[in-house]
Amino acid sequence: MENIIGTVVSVSRSTAHTFSKQPVDVIKLLAGLGVEGDAHMGKTVKHRSRVAQDPSQPNLRQIHLIHSELFDEVGKAGFRVEPGQMGENMTTRGIQLLGLPTGTKLYIGESAVVELTGLRNPCAQIDHFQSGLLQAVLDRDENGNLIRKAGVMGIVLAEGDVAPGDAIRMELPPEPFRPLERV
């Protein structure tokens, strides 16, 4: 396993299906379920649009992580975003979440382990939070392909408490790497 590559800036949860989540002192990650007390916790999908499609789908979105560097970036465009306001459970710093491959394991704090499953697909609710923010969290690469910058999703492999200041270590999956895709 590699050395420490990032830190937890903030942790958040919401018992209701709200766009923003409330920052708290600590969250408990539960293996195979997600964040204890969060509306998106469970073995099967909890996001309303996915429940409407097929409520028996496995929940690949048990935990949502956003890199705080995104807040710095959108801040330069005039937006003010604080941890938890874009619906993430964990805000990080120092780790290039979007560039990691599917299946990367993040070891967080003393015992929690999260496996990355894909990219968050930002929706129009972001513009209800702050008009124009949706466009600010999307980009295009040199070939015109859409780049989603609104964070990554994962599943909880090992439980543990996570709090601001906790270290994040990383273990890459076996090659060949598969880039994160929308989940």
TrEMBL record:
PANTHER family: METAL-SULFUR CLUSTER BIOSYNTHESIS PROTEINS YUAD-RELATED, MOSC DOMAIN-CONTAINING PROTEIN. The lineage of its organism: Bacteria, Bacillati, Bacillota, Bacilli, Bacillales. Residues 22-171 form the MOSC domain. PROSITE patterns: MOSC. This is MOSC domain-containing protein YiiM. GO terms for molecular function: catalytic activity; molybdenum ion binding; pyridoxal phosphate binding. It comes from Paenibacillus taihuensis. It comes from the Bacteria.
